[in-house]
Model the fold of this input.
Amino acid sequence: MMKIDKSLQSVTTVSLAEGKKRTDVNSTSADLPQVNNVHLSPNATKLQNIDSNLTSGSVVNSARIQEIKQAISEGNFQINPEVVADKLLETVRELIQSKNGEA
Done:
């Protein structure tokens, strides 16, 4: 029969000690200055500028929205079909121009 020696360290103790030693070994390389460089493409810079402009300024006119909601609820909201048609055509023209690369 084989006798088991109970004086051996448990596996978790050894693993923790080894992990600490490995961290200590790596800490000497951490003392060296590390340089991280990030280069953004011009498109990424444009997107950041657009995003910052949108967050800094309000795109929605809340007061105008409240006026329109009030007029709708009271039944006083007037729809001008000519203006709606003109704006729709203007939007379609802009989309066609941007698709053709003219914008």
The helical segments are 11-30, 42-56, 62-74, 81-99. The chain has a mean pLDDT of 75. The CA atoms of residues 46 and 52 lie 10 Å apart. The radius of gyration is 34 Å.
